Amino acid sequence: MSVKITSVAKQLPQFSRTTDEIIPFLKIWLTGQEERFQRKVLKIFENAGVEKRYSIMDAHEVFLNTSFEEKNDIYARESIKLAESALTKALKKAALNPQDIDYIITVSCTGIMIPSIDAYLINKLQMRQDIVRLPVTEMGCAAGVSGIIYANNFLKANPNKRAAVIAVESPTSTFQLNDFSMVNVVSAAIFGDGAACVIVSSYEEDEGPKIIDEAMYHFFNAEKMMGFKLTNTGLQMILDKSVPETIAEHFPKIVYPFLEKNNITIHHVDHLIFHPGGKKIVQTVETLFGSLGKNIDDTKEVLKLYGNMSSATVLYVLERFMDKKLPKGDVGLMLSFGPGFSAQTVLLEW
Predict the structure, then answer these.
(1) Which DSSP state fits 292?
(2) Where are the domains of the chain?
């Protein structure tokens, strides 16, 4: 029995702005700040490698002095809509009905909801009453791959079952209006909102790339490298500037033993399905793999078109590969990083 990814579908929020369109709002936000600092912030946005960002709020709402409660209310309302659309699209791609899903995993870290998004989806789509639920709330950017790993383990133990992994994120909801730190600026420059859904199956007749193996790698003593601090004004981003260098340092220990365990090397990997954490991380990965003849063009394109949407982003990259109808036997390596600090990997074979 093999576990396969049968479909992937994305859903974007209704609002979007190019970087050029965001600059006027930034200038208003920066009013009263030192001129040199203002120039630096604008340069960060212009050089972030992100041409467009989507959001559950229009730009003027992001820069309004809304409370944590107001922003979280918008997050809850819009996240349900995005999740429902992504799940519906993924089911349609796989020619399935909502009742065909036995296990539902929802991942998000940019807002707070109890009950979690999956409860609303079960009611809205009249899914199975015995469906197994798993909300994942604190894995950050890694959670898209984490969700696939959890689905894979459930399905390996349960033949003839299907799982839906739904990632919904709104980093713009975490923008801190009165925080002029570099962390707040950089996160605003690279992040955007979005949702995606992956259908995973252990039915023999279902088609799609097989999950050959998966793994998690945990960095010791790196808990404070990335995450959120819960403040009175919302979720305040934590993002250490050493993240790209730390990832580069650990890359050989993350990738090569994992591939060796599966009796292959990096030369056998045809496709790198990597999470675009930001321009610096993308450059770090390119430096490591470019010399081996590997590219992350799809990762770069997703960053450019949408920004980093936390857990959903790597699923946007995966969708691009799924849509290519790759040749049988092609091997893909999925990889994302998140708070903890940790790396999550999945090996796929078409």
Answers:
(1) T
(2) 4-201, 210-349
The torsion angle over the Cα atoms of residues 220, 137, 97 and 127, rounded to 10 degrees, is 130
State the average pLDDT over residues 132-160. Answer: 94
What per-residue string of b and e applies to 155-166 under the rule 16 or more CB within 10 Å gives b?
A: beebeebbbbbb
Looking at the chain, the whole-number percentage of residues with pLDDT higher than 90 is 72
Taking residues 38-42, report their average pLDDT.
93
The CATH superfamily label for domain 4-201 reads Thiolase/Chalcone synthase (3.40.47.10)
Structure tokens at 243: 């993240």
Q: Any idea how long the chain is?
A: 350
Confidence class for position 296, pLDDT limits 50, 70, 90: confident
4-11: strand order across its sheet: 132-136, 103-107, 162-169, 194-201, 4-11, 210-218, 342-349, 331-338, 271-274
pTM: 0.94
pLDDT at 75 over 80: yes
**What's the 3-state SS for 163-174?**
EEEEEEECHHHH
Q: Give the largest Cα separation in the chain, rounded.
A: 63
Same CATH topology for 4-201 and 210-349: the answer is yes
Contact (CB, 8 A) for 208 and 225:
no
Superfamily of domain 210-349: Thiolase/Chalcone synthase (3.40.47.10)
More confident of the two residues 178 and 122: 122
What is the per-residue burial (b if ≥16 Cβ within 10 Å, else e) of 182-218? eebbbbbbbbbbbbbbbbbbbbeebebbebbebbebe
- Please tell me the number of Cα atoms within 13 Å of 334 on its side-chain side: 35
Q: Which residues contact 150 (CB under 8 A, 6 or more apart)?
A: 105, 134, 136, 165
- Residue 179 carries which DSSP code? -
Region 17-33: what's the mean pLDDT?
Answer: 92
Helix, strand or coil, per DSSP, at residue 224: coil
Q: Which helix (H) or strand (E) holds 45?
A: helix 35-46
Other CB atoms within 10 Å distance of the CB of residue 292: 12
User: Which segments of 4-94 are extended strands (E)?
Assistant: 4-11, 15-18, 52-55
Distance CA 105, CA 118 (A): 7
